[in-house]
Amino acid sequence: MKLKRVLKWSASVILLALVVWFFIAYWRSTNECDRKTAAHNPMKAIVHCEYGGPEVLTLADVEKPTPADNQVLVRVRAASVNPLDLTIRGLWLLRPLSGLRKPKDTRVGVDYAGTVEAVGKNVTQFKPGDEVFGGKNGAIAEYVCVLADRSVY
User: Fold this and answer.
1) pLDDT per position as a tens digit, 23-51
2) Can you give the three-state secondary structure of 85-141, one letter per residue?
C-alpha cells in the first residue's frame, strides 16, 4: 500500500515537472529574428521566423559567414528543396528538437553546389575556384561555410 502511494506521488511530481518545463521552454523559445541588428558584411538568404507554409519564407540580409580553420566558404550557385525542409511547417513531433514556439534554426535548405571562395588555414584539399557540392543547413543563401571534409569535388 505504501509503495503504491510513493509511486503515485513520484509519477505526479515527474508529470508536474515535465509540464512546467514544457511551458518554460515554450515561452522562452526564440530565434535571431527577434534581434534586429544590421549585418556588417551582409548577404541574402531565405529565412523563416515562424512555423507555417511557404508564405512564412522571406528574403533577408544576414551576416556573411567567415570560414574557421577547417572550413571552406562556398558561393552557392544552386540549392535544392527536399523533405528535410519540411521543418518550416513545424511538425509537432519534431518541435522539441527544432523549437517549440519558433524555429531555432531560421535558415532554409540543405543541398548546395557552388564555388569555393575562401579556405581556412588548415584546409589543404580545396583552393579558391574549386567546384564543390554537399549538404549544410542554410544552403539557400549566397554563401555557406562548411567543414572541408563534408564537401565533395
Assistant:
1) 777 666 677 776 666 678 899 999 988 88
2) HHHHHCCCCCHHHHCCCCCCCCECCCEEEEEEEEECCCCCCCCCCCEEEEECCCCCE
Q: Name the β-bridge partners of 147.
A: 71
CA 72 centroid distance within chain? 18
Residue 108: name the closest of 149, 151, 40, 52 by CA.
52
Q: Is the backbone of residue 80 left (phi > 0), alpha (psi -120 to 50) or beta?
A: beta
Closest Cα partner for 112 from 149, 71, 82, 69?
Answer: 82
Q: What is the pLDDT of residues 50-102, one digit of tens each?
A: 888 888 889 999 999 999 999 999 999 999 888 777 666 666 676 777 777 78
Reported as type and span, the H/E element at residue 147 is strand 143-147
Q: Are 141 and 112 within 8 A, CB to CB?
A: no
